[in-house]
Amino acid sequence: MTNLKAKYEDLPEDYKALGGRGLTSTIVAKEVPPTCDPIGLHNKLVFAPGIVTGSTAPTSGRISVGGKSPLTGGIKEANAGTNFSQRLARLRIAAIVVEGKVKGNEYYLLKLTKDKTEFLKADKWVGKGLYDAYKEIFKEFGEKKVSVCGVGIAAELRGAMAGISFNDPEGLPSRYAGRGGLGAVMASKGLKFIVVDDTGAPGFEIANKKVFDEGIAKVRDALLAHSVTKKGGALNSYGTSVLVNIINEAQGLPQNNFSSGQDKRAEKISGEAKAEAIKKNGGVRPHFCSPGCIIQCSEVWTKPGGKDPVGCLEYESVWALGANCGIYDLDIVAELNRACNDLGTDTIETGGTIAVAMEGGVIKFGDGKGALSLTEEIRKKTPLGRILANGTQFTGRAFGVSRIPTVKGQSLPAYDPRAIKGIGVTYATTPMGADHTAGYAIATEIMGVGGKADPRDPKKAELSRNLQLATAAIDASGYCLFIAFAILDIPEGLQGVVESLNGVLGTNLTVNDVSVIGKQIIDIERDFNKAAGFTSAHDRLPEFFIDEKLPPSNEVFNVSNEELDSVF
Ligand code: SF4
Fold first, then answer.
1. Bridge-partner residues for 345, per DSSP?
2. φ, ψ (nearest 5 deg) of residue 536
3. Which of 391, 451, 460 is nearest to 419 (CA)?
4. Separation between Cα atoms, residue 197 and residue 87, nearest integer Å
5. Less CB within 10 Å around the terminal CB: N or C of the chain?
6. Against a cut of 0.70, is the pTM above it?
7. CB neighbours of 321 closer than 8 A, spacing ≥ 6?
């Protein structure tokens, strides 16, 4: 970005079997100094489609983004589902590595086509919401032939809650590599948008088509058979927020900044209520974030008459902007979600931030209009907006709050670790900072997928470790993490995933290699964090989870430090 030049390099031999999180974390660990300033000259931002992304493998349109996180100070990988990744893969681009920094305060749009790379001025979109900006960009560059990724106003502020947005099939800026503030890294380099046009692309390469085809048939069969992933199944019917009622029932749905684990009003923001409202309002459900998804957990939420489309209202977003702020009105939650997408913020971090601001007395719990006005502070770039844009921990400290639900500076997701302990072990020990997707123990503890475990049993190191290793491998593969529900229960599905990777790469991996690949990735990430100054003292939950009982279960987080340290 310093010289506005793009250089094409062949993929080094030892990177050839890498993709997604495996490739982003490897490049970041090799090329970024662990102690560098995340929004300074020496950080790099890496975009990489997964290994099978761009092929006909089902449910595999993922893009990974990696860099040093301004929120955690450690290594970060965040991923999203979007056709942006599939176009990149069809252009046979294994990764984009953004380095350097524009001199001055200008912003640029990077345009990639089969034949050339251009840096175009993007200043006209500075200060503009992403819904309008995406509309204009699609109009300018060709609605049907390009995909877009970009950062919004929160990133212009270098806010540590700024995510990187990617278009959904409708062209809305609703699919986010949200976590860890990577949007601020992108903006700090002077890069506002990337537009990919794959016209005339050479297409996806497969080393052994027969092995690949046999593998993806097994994956498809498993997805279509499992109750969570099949057509008419839980995710397809209600989206991820099918979990609202389930986790509320388990007394682990955090309310009012993690003050209670249950509230009967939660039903009003459930997946079931959402599906009904979408039917009435004229939105779309089910829906996919990227072509080729069989599960189709997504949707397009709109106001009545199909107005002001938001995109998907995920469980995490509905919880963060809803129950965790004491707001039980889906229309307001959707408006808050739209504000997050428009400003370019991570919905989990935004909800966590609003909740600690409520606890700090800035507005009251349950004040939906007040919550919307806080997002406007970010839009107007006021001093308060600049504090909020830096996330839950920064805002909590600014307002004298001691109950700040973060690990390594990143806001906790939608499961109270006192009621469901295994997910707490993942929050504490993943190199990513509090992140449910890093090792989704809820699958086993609540949904009985991949075995059964008592959510209140504090012995969860092994469960979390196994899930973290498997997840790192899936994040590298390009498959959506939601395939895990099916392949944890159906062995042929897992076999199919491995065969599809072998088909693409021409390798001879076995099912046993999945955890080996995952361990290699997590070792690289933990080594980076260690060199950045992290110790086992950072693999802990905030003390209020240990000291304060969670109503109505009256559970505390009673997982010992020895148990946490035994994960890795
Ligand atoms: S399951 Fe949902 S998030 Fe995953 S690829 Fe399909 S639509 Fe996207």
1. 162
2. -65, -20
3. 460
4. 7
5. C
6. yes
7. 327, 333, 336, 337, 340, 347, 350, 351, 354, 371
Interior/surface letters 142-157, b for 16+ CB within 10 angstroms, e for the rest: eeeebbbbbbbbbbbb
The pair phi, psi for residue 112, each rounded to 5°, is -115, 130
Q: What would the two tokens of residue 69 be?
A: 């996180």
C-alpha count within 13 angstroms, C-beta hemisphere, residue 551: 6
Residue ranges in 75-129 assigned as alpha helix (H)? 83-90
Ligand 1 centre and the CA of 365: distance in Å? 32
Asked whether 185 and 68 are in contact (CB, 8 A), the reply is: yes
CB-based burial of residue 48 (10 Å sphere; 0-12 exposed, 13-18 middle, 19+ buried)? buried
CA 477 / ligand 1 centre spacing (Å): 14
Closest CA to 295 of 247, 241, 239, 245: 239
- Cα–Cα nearest to 543, from 350, 407, 363: 407
Q: Locate tokens 């990777």: which residue?
A: 501
Q: For the chain, what percent of residues have pLDDT higher than 90?
A: 99
Handedness of CA 171, 172, 173, 175 (dihedral sign): negative
User: Residues 361-415: pLDDT tens digits?
Assistant: 999 999 999 999 999 999 999 999 999 999 999 999 999 999 999 999 999 999 9
The pLDDT of residue 143 is 81
* Ligand 1 atom nearest residue 293's Cα: 6
Residue 343 to residues 135, 173, 277, 434, 474, Cα–Cα distance (Å): 15, 10, 25, 23, 30
313, 279, 290, 305: which is closest to 81 by C-alpha? 290
Residue among 176, 237, 288 to mutate when testing ligand 1 (max atoms within 8 A of CB):
288
Domain annotation for the chain: domains and CATH numbers: 13-197 (3.60.9.10), 232-404 (1.10.569.10), 421-565 (1.10.599.10)
Structure tokens at 368: 């939906």
Residues framing ligand 1 (Cβ under 6 A): 59, 61, 81, 288-290, 293, 295-298, 480, 482
The minimum-distance atom of ligand 1 relative to the CA of 288 is: 7
Angle between helices 330-343 and 347-359 (to 10 degrees): 110
Residue 255 has pLDDT above 90, yes or no: yes
Place of tokens 């057509």: 231
